[in-house]
Amino acid sequence: MDQAQHTSAYVGRFAPSPTGDLHFGSLVAAVASFLQARLAKGRWLIRIDDIDPPREVPGSTIAILRDLDSETARHLMELFSALNDHHNVTFLIATHDERVMRYSKRLIKMQDGKVISDITQIPN
Length: 124
Hints:
By secondary structure, this protein is of the alpha+beta class. It is about 35% helix and about 15% strand. It has 4 helices and 4 strands, in the order βαβαααββ. Strands 1-2 form a two-stranded parallel ribbon. A two-stranded antiparallel sheet has the order 3-4. α2 (about 60-65) packs across α3. The mean pLDDT is about 80.
């Protein structure tokens, strides 16, 4: 959905933890949340917070994003970038995964709940 289609303040969210592969129940929740946001002409956000490092599985962020789409995570990140470039749609992804960070136009690093750097960058 582009910004022009947003006619309500409704915001749907999907916030899986990167502790392994996306399971069927989470996929159903993601699709339901997306469809509800679309029906309400609102926005839909994916928020992947790696706030439980002991349980975090390396590569899970990419795997979850890949599982939300039939293509690879790279294609999904490229789609996010294109939506941002052409329709001014903003995506917020919280991650420690360097492969995801490469697609960012703005990288905000935090430590102990405080912003330690805020860098605008050109994605690879």
